[in-house]
Structures are given as C-alpha cells and as structure tokens.
C-alpha cells in the first residue's frame, strides 16, 4: 500500500505543476545494459524530451557509457553522448526599443524568436562513491562533462509584434563547454517489495552555479532482466539565463539487462 501511494504521488505531480508559471515537459528513455562480470558493464540508452508544456520536442539523444567497479564503494565511468537539441531563443523589448518609444509594445514583451535544431557532442568521466546503511543506500557522483557544439547557419528571426520572419540568417559559432556535475542520491530498500524509492539532488557548475535538479522517483524491478523507473524532476535554472525557464519534468525509463 505504501508503495502504491508513493507512485501515485509522483503521477499526480504534473497536474500540480501545470498551475504554475514554470514550464512542464517529459523525458522518455530506454536503456540496455550488458554485464560482463561483477565489475564491468556497458550501457546504451536513447531518450526523447519535450518542453513548452509537452507541445514541442526538446531533445533526441543517444548515450554510450562504460562502468568499472574499482572497489565495492567506488565506480568509475566514461561515456559519449550524441545530442540533437531543439533550440528556442526569445528576446524581449527594453526601454530603448523604437516600438516601445512609439507605444506599440511594452517593456518586457516578447520581441524576436529564433528556433532551430543543432547537434552537440558530449564526453563524460565520472566517479561514484556509495555506502549502505541498514536499508538505506547513499551515493555521491562527481561527473566532468565536455560538450562541443559545431557551428551552423540558422534561419532568420520571427517578430512577435509584426508577426513575420526576416530573411537574415545567423551563424551560430562552434563552442565547447566544461561542466562539473555533483549528484547526491538516497535510495531505500523496502522489505519484500520490487519497488525502490529514491531521491537525489544534482548541481551543475561552470565557474558558477548554473542549474540545480531535484528528483523524486521509484524503481520497479519487474524481473532479473527488466525494470521501470518513474521520476519527477524540478529543474531550477540560474536567473541570469534568459532562455531557460525553471522546468518540471516527469520521466519514464525502461531498463533491460543481460
């Protein structure tokens, strides 16, 4: 009964989020794990994300990651990801804009929108430290990631007030970025239950704190090879980022192991 109530709570969270001004999206993923021995395994996963209250696709991605258990309490991992992101950049009117001075729009109204798809390449290196206490499991993952975006020419902007697009293309220059991700996770093993509740806190640092993720979820081990994970994530973005809103994300992940 407690397990069912826990899963029901996660399922009800999206309806609570939709009443807020933050964005809401989903994350659907599938993962295949090949276990070679007690120390070594390789994971391949694919995912799809939505945003704008599930009205737009945010990302398609594929991930490949290898894991090696150095000691019972420490695991090392390296990985590569191919990301196909749907970018949406919206600028806003300020007090010096001509249309604001004319009284046609107000300061803060959306001005121009530029939408395009772009590919990113990402490599990661991680160390995960874990400790079990009674039925609790605590883990800390420190992950370095480098993401490279090749340059691309993208289409012109759409103006909200005049309701038309200009023909001026823009060159999005290639760019690399280093990020340190720190994640603390807590799991609880319920006696005689295939469901394991979990919660985690993850921060993203690139010379400053850029993003914080809070996750509440549950893993359901169907059998020795198959499992499902249902999760709710609140993604808090640094206020200096004009393009990324705070976001509520409900995720469903299928896992197959052989």
Describe this structure in words.
- The chain starts with a helix and ends with a strand.
- Strand 1 (23-35) and strand 2 form a beta hairpin.
- The chain contains 2 helices and 15 strands.
- The chain has helices at 2-17, 98-101, and strands at residues 23-35, 40-51, 56-71, 74-92, 110-133, 136-149, 152-154, 158-159, 164-165, 170-172, 175-188, 195-205, 209-221, 226-237, 247-257.
- The mean pLDDT is 91.
- The chain is mainly beta and 258 residues long.
- The strands form 2 sheets. Strands 1-2-3-4-5-6-11-12-13-14-15 form an 11-stranded mixed beta barrel. A two-stranded antiparallel ribbon has the order 7-10.
Characteristic terms for this protein:
11-stranded mixed barrel, 2 helices, two-stranded antiparallel ribbon, elongated, 15 strands, 258 residues, mainly beta
Write the layout of secondary structure elements.
Elements lengths: L1 H16 L5 E13 L4 E12 L4 E16 L2 E19 L5 H4 L8 E24 L2 E14 L2 E3 L3 E2 L4 E2 L4 E3 L2 E14 L6 E11 L3 E13 L4 E12 L9 E11 L1
Parallel strand pairs: 1-15
Antiparallel strand pairs: 1-2, 2-3, 3-4, 4-5, 5-6, 5-8, 6-11, 7-10, 8-9, 11-12, 12-13, 13-14, 14-15
Strand tally = 15
Class derived from helix and strand content = mainly beta
Strand % is over 45%
Strand order of the largest sheet: 1-2-3-4-5-6-11-12-13-14-15
* Arithmetic mean of pLDDT: 91
Rg over alpha carbons? 21 Å
Low-confidence spans: pLDDT under 50, at least 5 residues?
none
Task: Tell me roughly what share of residues is in helical segments.
Answer: under 10%
Helical stretch tally: 2
Kindly, what is the distance between the CA atoms of the first and last residues, rounded to a whole number of angstroms? 31 Å
Note the overall shape: elongated
Biggest sheet features: 11 strands, mixed, barrel
SSE ordering: HEEEEHEEEEEEEEEEE
């Amino acid at each position: 009964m407690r397990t069912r109530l826990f899963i029901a709570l996660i399922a009800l969270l999206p309806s609570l989020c939709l009443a807020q001004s933050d964005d809401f999206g989903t994350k659907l993923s599938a993962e295949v794990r090949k276990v070679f021995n007690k120390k070594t395994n390789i994971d391949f996963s694919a995912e799809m994300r939505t945003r704008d209250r599930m009205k737009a696709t945010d990302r398609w991605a594929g991930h490949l990651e290898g894991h090696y258990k150095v000691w019972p309490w420490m695991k090392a991992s390296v990985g590569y990801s191919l990301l196909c992101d749907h970018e949406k950049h919206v600028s806003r009117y300020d007090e010096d804009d001509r249309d604001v001075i004319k009284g046609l729009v107000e300061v803060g109204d959306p001005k121009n929108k530029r939408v395009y798809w772009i590919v990113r390449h990402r490599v990661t290196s991680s160390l995960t430290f874990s400790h079990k206490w009674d039925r609790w499991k605590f883990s800390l993952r420190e992950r370095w990631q480098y993401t490279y975006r090749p340059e691309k020419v993208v289409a012109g902007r759409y103006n909200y007030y005049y309701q038309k697009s200009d023909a001026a293309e823009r060159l999005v220059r290639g760019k690399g970025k280093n990020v340190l991700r720190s994640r603390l996770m807590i799991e609880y093993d319920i006696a005689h239950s295939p469901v394991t509740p979990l919660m985690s806190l993850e921060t993203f640092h690139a010379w400053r704190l850029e993003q914080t993720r809070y996750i509440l979820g549950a893993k359901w081990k169907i059998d020795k090879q198959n499992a499902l994970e249902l999760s709710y994530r609140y993604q808090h973005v640094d206020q200096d980022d004009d393009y990324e809103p705070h976001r509520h994300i409900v995720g469903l992940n299928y896992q197959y192991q052989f």
